[in-house]
Design a protein that fits this description.
Layout: H1 10-21, E1 25-31, E2 34-40, E3 45-50, H2 56-70
Antiparallel strand pairs: 1-2, 2-3
Length: 74
């Protein structure tokens, strides 16, 4: 992710950084309500990241759950 690709909610941004550190790909495409995706390349599963989640803490937990579920893919 580049500098301009940061998520505006700090909890979500921290979860996205954890996803990258776990080896998942984070893409920013800003399409309507979607900020971008977290992608597990080996299994091609996607997790949508919202631009303005109702609850940023819950959005971060969902990303962390995706990380946990896909940590063993390789």
């Amino acid at each position: 992710m580049g500098i301009g690709d940061r998520h505006q909610k700090k909890d979500v941004e921290a979860a996205l950084k954890r996803a990258e550190a776990a080896g998942l790909k984070v893409t920013h495409d800003k399409n309507r309500h979607r900020w971008g995706w977290v992608i597990c390349c080996p299994c091609n599963e996607l997790h949508r990241v919202h631009c303005t989640p109702q609850n940023p803490g819950n959005e971060a937990k969902k990303i962390d759950g995706f990380i946990k579920d896909h940590r063993g893919c390789a």
